[in-house]
Structure formats: C-alpha cells, structure tokens
C-alpha cells in the first residue's frame, strides 16, 4: 500500500515515511518511566515532538508489558484528557494506543483519528467502533495478549505465522468497513517474540510490506535491541535509529519512535535514496 489515511488526508507513502512520536501517560513505561505521566508534562512533550517533525502523536495510558492492573476508568482518565489537550493545541493527527473499544470510542470523540491496538483487535467491538468513527487502524501481531508474560514463544514458521495473523486482522478490518488505505500492520517486535525472533521480523520487513498494507515499525529502544547488543535502556538510541534506517529502506512507511528529531533526519536521508532509485529505475 502506497497511501495511508490520517483523518481527512491521504498521504502518498511511495517514498515518504510518517514519523509517529510516542507519548506515554503511564507511571511505569519501560522507557520514560513516568516522565510524561503528568498531563502538563505530556502536553509539553507533545509540543516538542511536533516541533521536531512528528507527523502523528501516539498516546497511550497502559503499558504493554506486565504491571499493576489499569482498569477501564483509569485508562479513560489518563488518555481522554490528554487527547483533548493535544487536539486543542496542535494541528497534528492523534493516535490512541489502546486495546479497549470503549477507550477508542471516547478518544475518537476527543480528536483521535488512529486506533493503535497491540492486541490484534481482541475486543469484539473494536473494529466496529473504529469504522463508525472513521478512524484508521493499526493491526499488531501478538502471540498471547497484552500484559501477559510470554518468555518462551514457539511458532511453526515465524514469518508465515505472523504474516497470516496480520492478513487475517486486515481482512477483518476491511469486513468491518475500514478501507485498505486506513489499515497499517505491525509485526509486534518484543510482543511474544524472543530477541532473535524480533530481529528476524525486522529483517523480513520487505516480506511484510508486500502483504499489501502500510507497514508500521515499532522498534524504538525495545528489549530485543538491549539483549542482542548488550545495551542498557538509555543506550539504545543509535541502535533504534539503525532500525529506522533499515526498516524504511525495506518497506516500512510509519515508524513509531521516542527520538522524533533523529528519526526524521534518518527518514529523509533514506527517502532521498529511494526517490533517486525510483526515478532512475535502479535495482
């Protein structure tokens, strides 16, 4: 897919990549460890990310990994005011990182136009809500479910299993009334994968991009980089940017990142190379 819709605008992604800045309104995020849990801090961070060149802001109120239970009411209290505040201040598309249809519905009313669901649409009402709101969706592969440890995942064929899952979720989205240019796929690095599995799926980005939908890469500062490279959480910036460069060169057209400024620079360089290749017909 060479186009992706954000609200009422369709972006040509033939050689262009959208940079999605991460905003966590959680006290226990694996990376920022609560730095933007306070609403004012989150809004200031959002403003900075837009200044740095973010095309999309992705707001989440529950971390993906194990931790204290966060109920629906608490997630709504964290996420909806954040989206309302950002929507009032910034002219940038907003994404909500949630697997609950109720949180998605309230977030879309508050101004969100993208539904980023790491559960693979486990909530049976999720796609209906997204379609009714006119929201684009991100279908993510996960082996079990969010917040459940999965230390020893097993697959019959890693790439084939992940691709089959993602295609199934994309087709469910289309069946719910969501257009193909409003569906993105995410291999779900670190979600039910060993570090080696995550690295393989990143390597196979071309294959996942060939499935016919926009491919989103979410590798920023993740555990697989730390374990494969022996890097502490605060030392993964260069490795994360390397993943962005590789992913964009191999078909990823949305990158979900903490370092927006660095990722924008990397994307523009790789995009220039892709544009030259396309114009010259070089292969």
Task: Write a structural description.
There is one protein chain. The protein is α/β, with parallel strands linked by helices and 283 residues long. Helix content is 43%, strand content 17%. It has helices spanning 39-52, 72-89, 101-110, 126-133, 158-175, 195-203, 205-209, 223-229, 237-249, 260-280, and strands spanning 3-6, 9-12, 18-24, 56-60, 94-97, 114-117, 136-140, 183-186, 214-217, 252-257. The model has no long low-confidence stretch (mean pLDDT 96).
Fold blueprint:
Elements: E1 3-6, E2 9-12, E3 18-24, H1 39-52, E4 56-60, H2 72-89, E5 94-97, H3 101-110, E6 114-117, H4 126-133, E7 136-140, H5 158-175, E8 183-186, H6 195-203, H7 205-209, E9 214-217, H8 223-229, H9 237-249, E10 252-257, H10 260-280
Parallel strand pairs: 3-4, 3-10, 4-5, 5-6, 6-7, 7-8, 8-9, 9-10
Antiparallel strand pairs: 1-2
Helix pairs in contact: 1-2, 2-3, 3-4, 6-8, 9-10
